[in-house]
Please model this.
Amino acid sequence: MKAALGRVGEFLRLIRFEHTLFALPYALAGTVLAARGWPRLAVFLWIIVAMVGARTAAMAFNRLVDRRFDAANPRTAGRASATGSVGPAYLVGAVLLSAALFVFAAAMLNRLALTLAVPTLVVLLGYSLVKRFWHQSHLVLGIALGLSPLGAWVAVRGDLEGAWPVLFLGAAVTVWTNGFDILYACQDLDFDRSAGLRSVPARFGMSRALLVARLSHALVPVFLVLCGLGADLGLFYFLAVALVTVLLVYEHGLVREDDLSRINQAFFTVNVVIGFIVLAGTLVDVFRIGSP
Model:
C-alpha cells in the first residue's frame, strides 16, 4: 500500500498536478458567468472532476509520448517518465482512466457536454504531437486551455446560446497561454533544434520569440475587456483586467534574451496569480450585479 501511494505521488509530481491551477480559474469564471452566480452543487463538482480528468489525461499522454525526448534533454532527463521509474504501462493506464473520468463527468452534466467530450480530448492529447511537425504547438496548447471556460458554459447551460462572453474569455486564455509557453520554450531552443522539434524559439530565434510572446500577451487585456463588456460586468472586473495587464508587463520584465534564470517565477507564480485575479474580478461583479 505504501509503495502504491508512493508511486501515485511520483506520478502527480511527474504531471505537475499543481499546474491544474492554470486553467481552473478560467473554468470557474466561465461557470459563474453561465450561471450568473453559483451553479447547482452537483454541476460544480462534475466540472471540477472533468477539469482534473482532462488535464491529467493530457499531461500523462505528454509524458508518455515525449519519453525519448525528455531523456535526451538535460533539463528534463530527471523526469520519472524519462528515467523509467514511472513506466509506459502506468502512463497508458493513467491516460485511459483519466480520459474515461473526463467522459463520465461530461455524461453526468448534459448531452452536449458528452457530445463534445471526445473532440475535446483529441485537442488535449493532440497537442503533445504537434511539436513534431509545426512550430506553433504553443497556440494549440492555448486552444486546449482556452476551451475550459467554454466547456464550463456548456456544462452549466447545455447549449451555446449567448456564449460570446466566454468565447472572448477563451480567446484571452488562448493568447495568454501561447505567450507564456513560448517564454518557457526558450529554455529548450538549442535542444529543440538539435532534436528536430519545432517551436517558435527554435524557428525564429530567441529575440523574435520574445517579441511574439509580448505581442500575444498584448491581446490578453483586449479579449478580457470584450468578455467583460459582453457579460455586462462592472468596475471590479475591469480593475482586475488592469492589474492583469500590469502583471503581464512584469512577467516580461523577468525574462530577457540573455537571462532566463527567472523563467519559472514568470511561468508559474505570475501566471497562477493572473488566473485567480481574473476569477476574483468576475466573482465580485457577478455576485454584486446579480441575475439580470
Q: What stands out?
A: The chain has a mean pLDDT of 91.
